[in-house]
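Hello Y.,

Per our agreement to keep a running log of every chain we model this quarter, I'm adding this entry. I've kept the format consistent with earlier entries: sequence first, then predicted structure.
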Amino acid sequence: MNIAYLDCFSGVSGDMLLGALVDTGVPEAYLREVLIGLPLHGATLTIDQQTVQGFAATRVQVACPLSHDHRHLAEINKILENGGLKPSIRDKALAVFTRLAAAEAAVHGTTVD
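Predicted structure for the entry above:
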């Protein structure tokens, strides 16, 4: 089993995190396979090499033509439940998004829904 520890003291964006995972060996084909399995019709994955403030970096962008400014937790849960993911992966993803929703709700003074 491989374990990665991320020290995101000031946060991390999705494209940066996915790029770091590709740089550590996650195959691009695997990311594409997972994306195709999710019910996000027309979603695409773009992976390219960039230089950011003098450092080489891999950027992974996910674009969805029917994107929203934001999605509520119930919609994210539905996408994950219907995405054909392995149960262990799906459950971990649901747990991550639930914790993120709780943190966002606390910061913005609202509910997780």
